[in-house]
Amino acid sequence: MKSEKILKATIKKGEKHMKIITSVMVVLIAIAFAGAALAVPPGRTVEFPGGGMGKVVFDGKIHADKGLKCSDCHTKVFPMRKTPGEFKMADMKAGKNCGACHNGTKAFSTSDAANCSKCHKK
After folding, report:
1. At 121, phi and psi to the nearest 5?
2. Quick check: 80 and 38 in contact, CB under 8 A?
3. 34-71 as b/e: b if 16+ CB within 10 A
4. In the chain, how many domains are there?
5. How far, in Å, CA of 32 to CA of 100, rounded?
6. What is the CA radius of gyration of the chain?
7. How far apart are CA 3 and CA 8, in angstroms?
8. Do 54 and 29 belong to one domain?
9. 119 pLDDT exceeds 80?
10. How far is the C-alpha of 105 from the C-alpha of 71, rounded, in Å?
């Protein structure tokens, strides 16, 4: 009798742990899919205000076609989500934000006026 009670209590405790594990897994999967939904899929773009030069259009496909993955920039250079605020050209020229790669070595330079229209669209 005593061993039967112990077995039932153990099973009940195991069921409780499985419910907790299942709940945690559901939340983790939901977070993973929410993050994926924020990615810039092929054919879609993200736009940022660009001041007098015109809006800045980011196209993830252009970067993917160059062999880059989202994780190359996110979260090393940028957070996973589009953040409000302005990007300053001076910061980019100092190697921050897009300028981390667009420095004339890894990718075209943000300092070269001939490249402005590659990002800025009127």
Report:
1. -125, 130
2. yes
3. eeeeeebeeeeeeebebeeeeebebebeebeeeeeebe
4. 2
5. 26
6. 24
7. 9
8. no
9. yes
10. 20
- DSSP-assigned states of every residue in 55-72: EEEE-HHHHHHTT--HHH
- The per-residue pLDDT for range 90-112, each reduced to its tens digit, is 999 999 999 999 999 999 999 99
pTM above 0.70, yes or no: no
| Calpha distance 61→53 (Å, rounded) | 23
Q: What three-state secondary structure class fits 80? A: coil
Per-residue tokens: 53:
């030069």
**What are the φ and ψ backbone dihedral angles of 102, each rounded to 5 degrees?**
-80, 70
**Residue the block writes with tokens 């402005």:** 116
All residues at 6 or more sequence positions from 120 whose CB lies less than 8 Å from its CB, including other chains = 50, 53, 54, 55, 56
Q: Which domain holds residue 3?
A: 1-37
Same domain, 71 and 106: yes
**Spatial distance between the Cα atoms of 60 and 40, rounded to a whole number of angstroms:** 5
